[in-house]
Structures are given as C-alpha cells and as structure tokens.
Amino acid sequence: MTKEAIDMPQKGGFSFDLCKRNDMLLQNGLKMPSFLKTGTTIVGLIFQDGVILGADTRATEGPIVADKNCEKIHYIAPNIYCCGAGTAADTEAVTDMISSQLTLHRYHTGRESRVVTALSLLKSHLFNYQGHVSAALVLGGVDVTGPHLHTIYPHGSTDTLPYATMGSGSLAAMAIFESKYREGLSREEGVALVAEAIRSGIFNDLGSGSNVDICVITKGQKEYLRNHMTPNPRTYVSEKGYSFSKKTELLSTKITPLRETVVVIEGGDAMEE
Amino acid sequence: MGDSQYSFSLTTFSPSGKLVQIEHALTAVGSGQTSLGIKASNGVVIATEKKLPSILVDEASVQKIQILTPNIGVVYSGMGPDSRVLVRKSRKQAEQYHRLYKEPIPVTQLVRETAAVMQEFTQSGGVRPFGVSLLVAGYDDKGPQLYQVDPSGSYFSWKASAMGKNVSNAKTFLEKRYTDDMELDDAVHTAILTLKEGFEGQISGKNIEIGIISADKKFRVLTPSEIEDYLQEVE
Prior knowledge:
Oligomer: heterodimer
Order of helices and strands of chain B: HEEEEHHEEEEHHEEH
Strand order of the largest sheet of chain A: 10-1-2-11-12
Low-confidence stretches of chain B: none
Domain Proteasome alpha-type subunits (chain B): 6-28
Organism (chain A): Lithospermum erythrorhizon (Purple gromwell)
Largest sheet of chain B: 5 strands, antiparallel
Order of helices and strands of chain A: HEEEEEEHHEEEEHHEE
Number of strands of chain A: 12
Helix content of chain B: 25-40%
Distance between the termini of chain B: 54 Å
Shape of chain A: globular
Shape of chain B: globular
Structural class of chain B: alpha+beta
GO molecular function (chain A): threonine-type endopeptidase activity
Radius of gyration of chain A: 25 Å
Largest interface: A-B, 7 and 9 residues
Keywords (chain A): Cytoplasm, Hydrolase, Nucleus, Protease, Proteasome, Threonine protease
Mean pLDDT of chain A: 87
Mean pLDDT of chain B: 92
Helix content of chain A: 25-40%
Protein name (chain A): Proteasome subunit beta
Distance between the termini of chain A: 84 Å
Number of strands of chain B: 10
C-alpha cells in the first residue's frame, strides 16, 4: 500500500476501523449487551374477502406478566388495523401518530386511506430512528386496491406477504401457517387458522399467553373480536366452597359481592363548587 | 420572516384607535358571497351561495362548506384561499387536541384556537389579516353551537347569523323568523328562504350549499338532490 499525502474520503459501506478495538475489549472481559426478546405472538393472513389479524394478550416486563389482557391490535384507520410487537409504548405511540396523520390526510383528500400510505408513513418514521423505536408491526387492511398485508421491522424494512407472523412466538405460529395455509380461505376457515396459530404461540412460547384477539377486515366492514378465545381462564373460587375445619363452629354466613353495582341517579344535583 | 424592510407589523393603530387593515379585511368579507347559520334546538344548519365565475366551471368540484372534525363544520364569506389555510390549520389543531387528550375537541376550544391564529396575523411582522369571516357549526356535549369568527380574531356565539353581501337584509329576516324552539328542518327552510331573499337569478340545488349537524353529532354537507327536495318543500 503506497502512503498517500492526502486522506481519501470514506467510500461508504462497513467501516472496519473499530473491529480491533472490539476484540481487545472482549478479551479484557467486556460483556456485550444481549438482545431483548419481544414477548408476543402476532399474525396476519389474507383470505378470500380481505384480511384477518390476530394477537395474543400478554404484556411482559422481563419475567413478570405486566398485563394479562392487553390490546395489541391497534386502530390506524377505519379500514386498516395494525398488530404491534416490541416495546408497548413504542408500538402504541407510533400507531397513534400515524393514525392521526392519516385522519388529516383523509380530510384533505376526501378519500379512504390506503394501506401503502400507512406502510410508507410507518417505515419512514422507524427508519429515521434507526431501530431505536422498537416496534415490529403486522399491518393489514382493505382499500380500493384490494386487501393488503405487510410486516414492518424496527429498522424500517418491510415485507408484503399473504400470511405473516412476528414476535417471540412467530416460529410457533408460522409452523401452523406453513402447514395449513392456502389461498382463498373462507371467513370461518381463516379465523380458525389464525386462532390456531395464536394458540400455538400462547402455549409454546413463554413470552405469549392469555387470550386470542382477532380482527377481520373486509371491504367496507371491520369486526374487532376482542377476546375471541379465552383458553386460559382464571379460577378464583374453588367450586367446593370454603369449609371450616371440624373443630370450628359456624355461627353466621354473610356473602359480600366483590363488584358493587353502581346506581346512576338521573338528574341529580351537580357537584358543589 | 420576510424581508427586514417589512418585518414590522402592517396592522398599526390609527389615531382614532382603530386597526385600519382589519376594517379593510371586514370590507373584503362584506363583498363576499352571502353565508348564514342558524342554531336550532336539535342541531345547526349553515348555508352559503355558490356563485361560480362562469358556467364552464365544474361546480361539483367546488365545495365551500368544509368539515373540520366529524362533529364540527365551517363555512366562510370572503377570500376562498384564506379560508383554506384556516381550515387546514384548524383540522390539524383538532387532531393534536385529540391525540393529547383522547377526546373530540369541544367546539369552543376549536373556535378559540382558530381565532387565536387569526389574531396572530394581525400582530405579526410582514403578514396581513385573513380576509374571511367563518361560521363554525358544531354539536358536542354542550349541545348545538354556532360561532362566528372575524378577521380580527374576535368570536361570538350566535343563535343565527349572516355574513357577506346581503348581511343586513339577511339579519333582519333572521331576527323576524328565528324562534328558540325551532327544529332543524324548520331551520333549513328558514336558511333557504333567507338566501332566496337576496339571490340574483334562479335558486337551485347546484348554486347553494347547505351543511347540517343534528343530534347524531355527524356533520354532513347535503347533496344537490337533497337541497332540491328542501327547495320544493319551501315553494
């Protein structure tokens, strides 16, 4: 290599300058940060009349279940919904923001929103933040050009697919899709397949659990089936009831319901200032 | 913003204490096409003339009455392009309010923010006041509401109001005809009759625009055929 008097400018591509330093740090005992798994199973598929999205309902904070019944299918437009995996705050904030932008766009154009519009807005936002907005999304909807299903990765890349899964339970769910998906499914078959895929994630992945949420979007109509399936019910009270040990004498029984019924008084006085 | 030579405010006080530019803006409004609004007991109606400069203009593409949120609509008198800027800003403000508070913006709040924008342009450097007066019609938890916003940024709640060319005749007509317990259908008929008063030529579904909001809280612009039905009822 001849030594040049002038420094050549970077030509782009990966810069190997720091590799030696990283190796030295590793040898000296530095622990590289590990990747955080996204605890979720989210899926989507295209059936004959439109798109079906599905999600589990477990929100995790490390090894703890933070929310047993959270909503992972977010509203973007009347004809477009989005499942979110990753950091819950990121998915909610980014879908909320794009939903707001699309509402304004609908007022200005007077037209129904298109799925590719939502896709472009989401991917350019995520790319600008270089993956620091940890939102992995499954975007689906039906517009004038037909049904569409896309996956969006935190760094801003997208795929357009007939069936898709994301999250830590994606492999379990994809196994179901790969063996049972075919084109031209009916609504019942599609919902059953999505529910099966989510159940596969719920039972085989620790990061996913609780119930199955489903959203069916067709031309001009959408059905949000919240808690379509609850395969993990919680039993609070033993059916046998509470029985005291033989030496205790039962003097009286009083049953207090845990949920009080609220009585609404029509035309009551307003609160005092 | 703008050249340094024009970075002072063009709206400066006259010795009599008036802001002459705003007076001129009101004159611009006064020479615009007539528009009016009526608040009924169960809704609000806003209406305007839609006189196009030539028969060659595609009248289906022109829409003077605009929707700001699902339950708030607006009509203007004066310079159309100025109203488009205000409509755009108001829609954005309504959306921002909704994102922050997760509730639909109350009519008073939206009117207040729109009026604040209009006032800004009477006190900033290198800009001129808006040459429009707006009639904002909405239905929220407080019931049906009608507000008029002027180029100065002042706003008032009205039971019935008119703006534009025929304002004095229209207001006298409305004063005579208005009743507090009016229903929305009666209000639409009254609105049509008021527009008819000063209308040059034959009134039809294609040269007036009517927007209504009823207790269902959904603002919508009537189609020309619906207007024709109302016109026939009035005849």
